[in-house]
Amino acid sequence: MAAYDYDVLYIGSGHGTFDGAAPLAAKGKKVAVVEQDLIGGTCPNRGCNAKIVLDSPVALKRHLEEVHGIITGDVDINWAANQEHKHEVIAGLPDFIQGLLDSSNVDILFGRGTLVDNHTVKVNGEEKTAENIVISTGLQSNRLDIPGSDLAHDSEEFMNLSEMPARVTVIGAGYIAMEFATMASAAGSEVTVITHGDQALRAYHQPYVELVISDLESKGVKFVRGVEVEAIVGGANGLVVRGADLNIDTDWVLDATGRNPNVADLGLEEVGVKFNENGIEVDDHLRTSVENIYASGDVIDKKEPKLTPTAIFESTYLMHTFAGETTDAIDYPVIPSVVFTSPRIAKAGITVAEAQANPDKYTVVENDLSGDWYRQVDKETIGKNTLIFDQDHKLVGATEVSNKAEDVINALLPAMEFKFGPAELERMVYLFPSIASQAWGQL
Ligand SMILES: Cc1cc2nc3c(=O)[nH]c(=O)nc-3n(C[C@H](O)[C@H](O)[C@H](O)COP(=O)(O)OP(=O)(O)OC[C@H]3O[C@@H](n4cnc5c(N)ncnc54)[C@H](O)[C@@H]3O)c2cc1C
Ligand SMILES: NC(=O)c1ccc[n+]([C@@H]2O[C@H](COP(=O)([O-])OP(=O)(O)OC[C@H]3O[C@@H](n4cnc5c(N)ncnc54)[C@H](O)[C@@H]3O)[C@@H](O)[C@H]2O)c1
């Protein structure tokens, strides 16, 4: 049998890698991680963690506005201080994650990794061999192919702004567009969101999305729908975003038109790993088209949402595979998702659209939460949820729009994943008063 430098070598050090790589090495496997940038990848450094720190005063500002009168005085966000706070919170994360990998004896190879063959990766001109290779290279921001696209910025640049520009124009209507429009508006910017389709956040329950849009509009955010942006040009007074019948004067443009898989210049074509515009093609064991090469995390072409919890689940699954603990296909659990707008929209399981299309299989229960005493404690102004039950009255889906939507959906996950019936529901005792207790009481 050939002797390799490593049992497993990962390209990329994000959640698609490190949640599995560290325990795998701790089980005695020889593991290496190749990283060309910050350890930990997008989520800690340029995604979830960075974003949620910046969002914290935004959510608090909403809360204070809702209890205005009980709490008196004006509230403003000092963006420069918020930025500094974000830096303090996340700056240590790469070292922390590197510490986890080091303490499990994972070798970290800094540099760009490229495939040479199905057992070899080149890093800094040096070839390293491994029995198995995992490609976990994530996504990068899309750039519109229009004149002046270099005048636009991406989410990472937004999250490094030391001052919030007076006028921000956002192109797109997905997660990043809606979350960052919310932050910019709360921080005092005049915000315009341009969507090329009619709908924002297509995967979410549209009545709830419209509630969030109306709320943003009531705060002065302008939504321009169904327009293709054709150019960004420098004007006498900042920038101008142009489209058919569209001329928007602005100071700063966020291109939030999606993120594309990092598949270029990796040696995929040369080695024969199949991929398409959505990412690397894998089978139900996360194996690529080439033996001994696997893929994990956002870079995979998959129907599951490209989120941190999905990447963690995949890297953990691969850890069990490489440790010889399973030969089973990957069996994804219910994967929740949330948009951190203000209020949030969260969901898990069967969608409302799917349930409404199959009335023989599902019962849809809509709840207006404005009557819930616990929501009135914080004087929440927007609160609705929809619960979906199967024919045995077991919870199979839920979505909520409210300030606490992520906590409600998290609280309901065990009922969905483990298909709890009345006996199990009765055994679940939650602290009272709490949002989990209120959510569970609806079942
Ligand atoms: C602005 C933003 C906000 C987000 N917010 C959330 C959120 O709130 N909740 C949530 O669940 N998800 C969120 N996400 C998504 C989340 O960040 C990703 O799902 C997660 O980071 C995927 O992990 P990954 O390991 O697959 O990829 P990544 O974390 O992107 O890691 C890939 C790594 O590979 C490295 N790499 C690439 N090519 C090479 C190469 N050839 N050689 C060496 N290294 C290479 C990169 O430098 C990078 O470090 C957000 C994303 C963004 C952009
Ligand atoms: N809360 C979270 O979990 C969270 C937050 C931010 C990002 N993310 C992840 O980051 C990734 C990227 O998010 P995103 O918001 O960039 O992508 P997205 O796919 O959610 O949204 C892209 C948006 O751009 C629009 N668009 C595409 N082409 C366009 C064009 N030519 N002109 C105008 N609009 C166009 C689409 O209609 C869509 O509204 C996703 O994988 C997402 O899961 C997650």
TrEMBL record:
FAD binds at residues 113, 298. Keywords: FAD, Flavoprotein, NAD, Nucleotide-binding. Disulfide bonds join 43-48. Binds 1 FAD per subunit. GO terms for molecular function: nucleotide binding; oxidoreductase activity. It comes from the Bacteria. NAD(+) binds at residues 172-179, 258. Residues 335-436 form the Pyridine nucleotide-disulphide oxidoreductase dimerisation domain. SUPFAM superfamilies: FAD/NAD(P)-binding domain, FAD/NAD-linked reductases, dimerisation (C-terminal) domain. Its cofactor is FAD. It holds the Pfam family Pyr_redox_dim. Residues 6-313 form the FAD/NAD(P)-binding domain. Belongs to the class-I pyridine nucleotide-disulfide oxidoreductase family. This is Glutathione reductase (NADPH).
